[in-house]
């Protein structure tokens, strides 16, 4: 598979066959992903391969709570956890209805669960002093995550990048032994797909690309 095809057809996989992912394959995926770019080439990522059943179940409990909250807020027409999703009286309050999740329901059985942490001291947050939420730091860890998913796909595996655990970082820090100054960036779920979605719904280039200014004319190529 060439790079363009892989980029255009790597949809999220949340249901996996029972085929295990052996350590050699998992290592090879991470060995590909480590070539991802990062600010200053500081490579601040850390990876935990979560094998222990009780740790998985505990992580799953936290993910489920965040998932339920996310769905409940989105159901009101808001964009859950966005900068505009401020905690006002209209926001749904707990308890939230429990919503099934293929991933969380099967967290014990997902072939590979990887928690991706990042050493915050290694991130040059170019936007940290602006009067808005900083986003640039993530760019030093998410390419690593995406490279892992692309590598997995090239090896016949599928997976999904999730972020719901980040909302529970303080609660899971001791469970995972998260070092000081580190943040949880993502949890990757990997395995052999029950079905690999390849037809992805994405906006066309001219819907998000303009010439000279963000209010310029559409760039149509
Ligand atoms: C930053 C980020 C966070 C995400 N968080 C979650 C998540 O918490 N749970 C989940 O099931 N999927 C998560 N996803 C997967 C997205 O839902 C998925 O990429 C998107 O819906 C596009 O779907 P597709 O890949 O099947 O086309 C996340 C993806 C990204 C890039």
Automatic annotation (TrEMBL):
Gene3D superfamilies, per database record: NADH Oxidase (3.40.109.10)
Record has Oxidoreductase as a keyword: yes
Protein name as it appears in the record: Unannotated protein
GO molecular function list: oxidoreductase activity
Domain Nitroreductase: 10-192
InterPro entries linked to this entry: Nitroreductase, Nitroreductase-like
Keyword annotations of the record: Oxidoreductase
Lineage: unclassified sequences, metagenomes, ecological metagenomes
Organism from which the protein derives: freshwater metagenome
Family recorded in the similarity comment: Belongs to the nitroreductase family.
A Pfam family per the record: Nitroreductase
């Amino acid at each position: 598979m060439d790079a363009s095809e892989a980029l255009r057809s790597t949809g999220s996989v949340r249901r996996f066959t029972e085929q295990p992912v052996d350590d050699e394959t998992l290592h090879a995926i991470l060995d590909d992903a480590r070539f991802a770019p990062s600010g200053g080439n500081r490579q601040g990522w850390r990876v935990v391969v979560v094998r222990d059943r009780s740790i998985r179940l505990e992580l799953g409990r936290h993910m489920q709570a965040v998932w339920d909250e996310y769905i409940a807020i989105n159901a009101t027409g808001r964009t859950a956890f966005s900068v505009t999703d401020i905690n006002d009286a209209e926001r749904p309050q707990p308890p939230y209805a429990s919503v099934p999740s293929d991933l969380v329901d099967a967290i014990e059985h997902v072939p590979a669960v990887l928690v991706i942490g990042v050493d915050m001291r290694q991130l040059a947050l170019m936007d940290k002093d602006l009067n808005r939420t900083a986003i640039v730091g993530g760019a030093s860890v998410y390419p690593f995550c995406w490279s892992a998913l692309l590598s997995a796909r090239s090896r016949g595996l599928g997976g999904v990048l999730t972020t719901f655990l980040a909302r529970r970082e303080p609660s899971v820090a001791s469970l995972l032994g998260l070092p000081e100054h580190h943040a949880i960036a993502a949890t990757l779920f990997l395995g052999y797909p029950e079905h690999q979605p390849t037809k992805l719904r994405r906006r066309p280039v001219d819907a998000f690309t303009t010439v000279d200014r963000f209010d310029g004319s559409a760039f149509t190529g």
